[in-house]
Amino acid sequence: MTMEKFHHTLPDGHELVLPKMENVPLGVIRKTRRLERTDQIFTLLEELLPEADLEHVDKLDRGGFEALMTAWKGASTVDLGEAGASSIS
Q1: Is the pLDDT assigned to residue 54 strictly greater than 60?
Q2: Do the beta carbons of residue 29 and residue 21 sit within 8 Å?
Q3: DSSP secondary structure, 14-54, as one string
């Protein structure tokens, strides 16, 4: 199984590296499964990124954050809401 990563360069030039959504560890998905969508996204980022990366994410405006999330979703074969269900069914 390949664990291909998603790479995204933020407007400040900092590069984030995240697992593609289909490769997010099941334990992380389990921790977020009952959260509202916004809390789910922030919890995923907090679980998957080191603090140094989160400091760059925290400086994004809404447009920059939406660009990040759109690119991450576009590079993945599942959406956040499907990640756990798809692997089980």
Answers
A1: yes
A2: no
A3: PEEEEE-GGGS-HHHHHHHTTS-HHHHHHHHHHHHS-HHHH
Q: What per-residue confidence (pLDDT) applies to 61?
A: 97
Q: Say yes or no to pLDDT of 27 above 60.
A: yes
| Full domain range(s) for residue 52 | 16-78
Instruction: Identify whether 74 is part of a domain.
Output: yes
What's the whole-number mean pLDDT along residues 65-82?
Answer: 86
Q: Is residue 1 part of a domain?
A: no
Q: Is residue 3 part of a domain?
A: no
28: tokens are: 């992380």
